[in-house]
Each structure stands twice: as C-alpha cells, then as structure tokens.
Amino acid sequence: MPKRKHLELWLGLMVIASTVLVLIGYFWLTGQPLGQRGYHVYLILPDGHGLARGDRVNVAGVEVGVVRSVTLEAVDRVSVRLFVEQDVQMPSDSRAILQSVGVFGDQLLVLRPGVASTFLADGDTLELGPPASALLDLVGDLGKDAEIVLAKIDRLLADSAIEGFHDILTGLRSTIGQIEQIARSNSADLKTLSSSLARTALTLEETLEGVEIDKTIADLEETAAMMAEAAGALRGSAESLSSVAAKIDRGEGTLGLLVNDSSLYVELRNTTRSIGALTTDIQMNPGRYLKMAIF
Amino acid sequence: MAAIGAGVTLTLYHAAGAAVLAFHTLRGMLRPRRYYQLMLAQAFDMGVASIPVVVVVAALSGAVTSQQSGYQFTGTVPIWIIGSIVTASVLTELGPLLTALVLVGRVGARIGAELGTMVVTEQVDALRAVGRDPIEQLVVPRVAAGILVLPPLVAIADFVGIGAGWLGAMLTLPITSSEFIYGTRTYFHDFALWFGLIKAAVFGATITFIGCYVGLRASGGAEGVGRTTTNAVVAGTVALMFWDAVLARLLKAFG
C-alpha cells in the first residue's frame, strides 16, 4: 500500500524531527550539551541558599559542570546532584563552596581541590567548605593590613629615627634658654611698653562710653531704618513696574495690545482719518446729518 | 427567566451529549487496529500539511514577543531578561495556544463541515445501515490523530518561536547572542516544556472532538452545514481558552 507507506513515512519523519528538536532544546536550555561525558557527585547541605538546577559548577573560575538536581530530603537536609565533566579530575577530599553571583542572587558552586591522591568518582559525596571565599578574603585582607602596620612600626623604631628625636630635643632645649635670656635683658623696655598700652586702652574706653557717640549711633540707626523702609517701597514699586512692563511686552491689556499690535495703530489712524473726513463732511453738508423739522 | 431556563437546559443537553460521545470515543480508541488506517490520513492532513502555517505563525509570534518585550524593558531591567520572557512565553503559551488556534481554523472547521455534510446528506445513516459504527469510523480516527499530531507541531512551533525570538532580538535590540542565551537558560524550568506538550495533546483532542460533536449535530441542509462550521470554530476557540485557564492552574500546582 504505497499510499499508507507514504503517510507513515511523512508522519514518522514529523514525529522524529519534533522529538529531536525537543531533546536538543531541552539539553541546550538546561546547559547540558548532548553526548558530553562526565560523572555525578553529590553534596549534602543544611540550606540550599536558592541553589537551583542548571546553576554552574566552577573550578578555578572555569565552568566544569552543572547542578543537575536539588532535592529537599528533610527540613534541614538538601541533596544536590552535580555533573562534572569527565576530564576534570578532582581529589576525593575536595570541597564545594556556595557563592552568590549576579544581582538576582544566582548561586554558583565552586569546587576547591583537596590534596588526596585519589579522585572523586561517580556517586561520591562532596564535603561543603567554608562559606564562599569571604572568610578567606577577610583573613587575607587582615594579613595585608597587619603587614603594613608592622612595617610602619619598624620604621618608627629604627636607630636613625631615635637619634633624630635626640637631636630635636637638644635643639628645643637650647631655643628655650635663648628666649629666657632675651626676656631678662629687655625687661625694662617691656614694662614701659606694657604701661603705655594700658593707658591707650583706658582712653579708648572713655571715648566709647561718651554720650555724643551714643546719640550719633542712635541717629545712624534711625536713618538706616528709614532707608531700609524706603528701599522696600522702592523695591515694591520696581516690581510693580517690572510686572506692568512684562504684561505690556506680552501684549496683555490695552496698553500691551497698543504697543505690540501694529494693526491697532493702523486702525486708529484710519479711524482718525475717517473722523476727520466725517467732520469735514458735516461742516460742508450739515443737512445730511442734522434734520430739524417742526412737522 | 424562561430564557435562562432554556439556556441551562440546552447546556445540560450538550454536556450530556458530549459526555456520551466522549465515552464512545474513548472506548473506540482502545482498539487502534480498527482506526489506524483512517487515523493516518487524518494525521497527515492535520499534522504534515499544517507545518508551513504553524511555522509562519510561530516565527512571527516569537519575533514580535522579543521585540515588544525589548521595547518595554530596555533601560529598566537587564536586557538578557528578554531571553527568559521569550522562552517562557513561547513554551507555555504562544507555542501551544497559537498552534491550536491555527488548527481550530484549519482542522476544526474542516471536520465540522465534513461531518455536517455527511449528516445532512444521510451518509452517516448509510454507515449505520451497513453496520458500521459512525463514531468508530468518523470520530475516533480524527480525535486520535489530533492527540498524535499536536505535540509534534507544538514542539516545532516552540523551536521556531524561540529561534525567531532570538533572531528578532539580535536584529532589533541592543542585545548580544550570549546575553539572550543566558536569559533563555536562567529562568528555564523543564516542566514548562513538558507542560506545553501535554497542553498540546489536550488541545488536539479538544479541537477534533468539538469539530466532530458539532458536525454530527448538523441539520438543515447547506445553510446548516455553514452554521455548523462556524459553531465548530467558535466552540473550539472557547474550549481552548477554557482548557488554557484550567491547565494554567495545574501548571502552578505541579510546576
């Protein structure tokens, strides 16, 4: 039956093609290339921290596998199944570390190689390492800081630095002695200068406490207040003028229209001309406009 | 009040009729040898012959989704999220639903018209007269063919839709290929893929079953056949939307 064979062939092709597409799409979307060889290892965690199937597994910053499944076995026990590429041989005492990456808190599993001579095999269970690299990084930072501080202390306690301190102290002592000697030899001049300064200060004080100065200051204050008031009034006037000028510029109001609209000017001139002509006509022919009749 | 009562009575009448037909169809499907030959012809017509239109619709829907979401999200969220949106939309909704809607117009209407014509020209009665079961001869092969071909068609539509979404994003949006791929993988749940295919099988059964049910109830000559065709498309579309809503709840429950 060629007809039947023809139908079966085409339908079979369609089903096979779609199945292949689904499989390719599935493995591609889950990040598992078809035919890739590798082994599975397990990791038991007390908390999954959002780890999900498809999350990456890295070794030394290179992607070497993928999280195949995350299963909650008990309320405090999460089993994670990892796929690791065949050519990545990890010592059996390697540890896994959870790291958060990206703005959405995606998780990344980092494998830290151990030192054992045997390697992880399919079905083995990994140990969880310390949380991320944060602790190690912190220890590293602290070590660096301590090194810097120690270097500075070393520099401070060096022999040359101590000798420098001795020289500075000797110089300081000599300077203080010289200042004492100068003060002793000029004590009479210093006393005269001091009494003169005291007299000047007294005179100034008397002048400042005088009645005339008080009156002058009061007058000045009154004048300043009046000027401030006048300035306020002037400011108000200026603002009003400015507002009026702005309205005129914008063409608001009669004056604004007159200033900005040339057609008004033209119309006004025409009207004036017409009134002139009318007046002349009235004068020439009053009978047209003024009727006076008794009956 | 009387109109409401008549409406309820009519609904119950159709529900009972559809239930009886569904029962006979399921029973008939247990004997594949009897309808295999007939099913092949139907499946070819529904499946292989529908591939071009399904591919065109899927490609356009994928490309439009990527562009629209790109315009909406550019500058507000990471651009790679477009890959996630296109993949999730195509796998869960656009792929199955648009393919099914295409088939409602192409297959549901044809089945309604075909069976309606057979009813009004008394060919169905003739089948009964020669001792053939019309349900086994007409309904079962069509419903089985619908269940068989919709999932492959949806798989093709998914593949084409995501591919077109990727291509559309590359050509029109400031996104790189690796960003799009990162997006497709980041929020991909494999249940969405399987769920889309399950939905496709349900849609295939729905389209063909409703076409058959409406067609077998045709009456009134050529005018009745025309009305039957319209009813098959309208009822099929409404039923698809209903299943889509119901199955979405299941997706939430199991996904």
Properties at a glance:
heterodimer, A: alpha/beta, seven-stranded mixed β-barrel, 7 helices, 7 strands, 18% strand, flat, B: 255 residues, mainly alpha, elongated
How does this structure look, described?
Chain A is of the alpha/beta class. Among the domains of chain A are: 35 residues; 97 residues; 30 residues. Helix content of chain A is 58%, strand content 18%. Chain A has seven helices and seven strands. Chain A has a seven-stranded mixed β-barrel. In chain A, a hairpin with a 2-residue loop joins β2 and β3. Chain B has 255 residues and is an all-alpha fold. Chain B has one domain. Chain B is built from nine helices and no strands. In chain B, α3 runs parallel beside α6 and α4 packs antiparallel against α9. The mean pLDDT of chain B is 90. Chains A and B meet through α1 of A and α2, α6, α7 and α8 of B.
Number of domains of chain B: 1
Q: Are there runs of chain B of 5+ residues with pLDDT below 50, and where?
A: none
The percentage of residues in β strands of chain B lies in: under 5%
Work out the number of β strands of chain B.
Answer: 0
Radius of gyration of chain B: 21 Å
* Chain pair with largest interface: A-B, 21 and 27 residues
Helix share bin of chain A? 55-70%
Report the mean per-residue pLDDT of chain B as an integer: 90
| Main beta sheet of chain B | none
Structural class of chain B: mainly alpha
* Average pLDDT figure of chain A: 79
Helices and strands in order:
The complex is a heterodimer of chains A (295) and B (255).
Chain A (H helix, E strand, L loop, with lengths): L1 H28 L8 E8 L10 E4 L2 E13 L2 E9 L9 E7 L4 E7 L12 E4 L5 H23 L2 H27 L1 H22 L2 H40 L2 H8 L1 H23 L11
Parallel strand pairs in A: 1-7, 2-6, 5-7
Antiparallel strand pairs in A: 1-4, 2-3, 3-4, 5-6
Chain B lengths: L1 H28 L2 H15 L4 H23 L7 H40 L2 H7 L4 H39 L4 H10 L3 H27 L4 H34 L1
